[in-house]
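Consider a protein example.
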Amino acid sequence: MSVATSSEARHEVRRIRNVLIPLADGAELAASLYLPDAPGPHPALISYYPYRKDDLVGAGYEYARSELAAHGYASLLVDFRGTGSSSGVCTTTFDLRAEGRDGAQAVDWAGAQEWCDGNVGVWGMSYGGCMSLAIAAERPSCLRAIVPLFGSPDLYDHYVHPGGTENLVGNSVREAMMLAMDLAPPTHQDPKGRWLEVWRERMARLERGELHSLAWTEHKHFDAYWRRSTVDVEQIEVPAFLISGWNDVLLKGMTSAYERLPGAKRMVVGPWTHILPDVSPWEPFDWLAELRRWFDRWLRGIGDDGDAGEEDAPVTFFVQGSEEWRRASWPPAGIEARVLHLDAGGRLALDQPVESGGERYEAVATVGIRGGLWDPVGLGVGYPREQTPDDLRSLVYETEPVDHDVEIAGEIGVALHVALERGDELQLVAKLSHVSPQGASTLIASGWFNAAHRRSSSQSEPMMAGRVEEVAFSLWPTAFMVPTGHRLRLAVACADFPRIWPTPSSPTIRLMRGPAHPSRVVVPVIPNGARLGEPAEVPRPQTGVDRSPWLIEAGPTYRETEDHVTGERSVTIGNLMRFALPQGGEIGMDYDGTATARDADPSGARFNGRSRIRTTLPAGERVEVTARSHLTRDRMLLEARVTMEGTVLMERRWTSF
């Protein structure tokens, strides 16, 4: 893709820290507004989060907002109702539809302001990416285009319950963080004291026990609660530019949204984890330049014709293995479904087996540690590692070495004929890897399935012990080149720790194969050694740019431990961040979370999290919030303490028991 920019003229930026947006029910959304110091009106760009515009998420996006305003856009960062500096009550977690309705009101409010020319775009990362989709589905009249990064239109399928399993570390780490952010004071201190009123009301509500983040633990199956967390992507009429990563927890959300979007659309998928691509240590990408290019086209009419060929090949993606950028439609044209059959002796073959049989497998609760980390908080760590230690504790089937480079693109499917011999819950994890002649196993894609929590109500019954059933599910999307001489390896297990919770008891299964029970893998390949799409280039970020101007210090944590006496394994992730506040003072947040499981007692799997926010307010007051979480697969306990200058303002415990 060629790189075009908006007007080369740069403007000074005016910052208005607490603009209040009225909602129809009387609540007010608080926003930071960045305006170009140039004659207006201007097109407006909005980002919308529950993560505090005046400090935490505000610090993370200060550079982007300033750049957008410097290039002629009015840029707004808006707090959800009941969070940060916004008033009102945040009633429940993951209510994309209600949050989208509020955001749509903010879009049309912005479009009617004197500094806006009536053209509004929405963009955001992670929850902000979800909001880009949710707001667009509400069809506000002033919305012209969106750019969701690393988001999803379905938080049940793509985040909390992938394949009906239960997300462990990726979701659990969020709870103590959100509680601490809810209890910390707004750091924009307006002269009239509105900030203090908002803070007092929020603490009083939480002290009464009205904690919005407990409800989701009580909804294991897809029901009315989770329908509120889905976005009807087919209702989106405005052009959409999606950005995602092959190693991101919300990858499936972006690719499925792209395939369903009815209008003008583009997508870029890189090798990234859940981190802004311009700060990724691997294949950094200047997403902000491409975001501006997209909004220039649809809000300003600059570059209406697009790049030559872009309409026919609107997806740019990184092919892992060959380490090349390519451009094609998605899924790419010319894909062939290559069926590989499970056979005796651990073989994976093109030929159909002539004999039936099967392998018995006793589940191991801590399989999966090498498979990568679902990191929703942007640590930039946790890529998959060499898979052999996990493969050795799984059922494994391998092809012969491939005689030419094989390019895979799309979703790999599995259909496994399985009997549950012992235990009361079937959970399956399938991973496709490629194995070098030296024996190194590299993950291509993973997929998950839980028989008791299938999305379709007609399939939500647990499997009957002893009965063979065909279990079909997809691995998450990928683009991967398998080199000549390497083997494809399918590993089947019943766990993927710490990405998903182990089942309370380790089941014993029998995986069947052969003519009577044709277990198989369906791999989407480019036939005859052909290449995926056309070569592509992506813009690289400018070097020497301070992308975190408020940052004082930061440092991620990612640690694995094993108790060789008890067999207990733990994975800990965390981060330390400290920022200077634009009004004076500073805020620091440190958090960590540890997922723990033991093969001998999977029912004891647990997650313990801690988050601490220390704030020195502009007037000098010191406030400290400490929040802790303890989660099992079925229960959650939260506790928090708030002090100001050493005096306890609040101490409370909440539980879903």
In short: The chain has a mean pLDDT of 93.
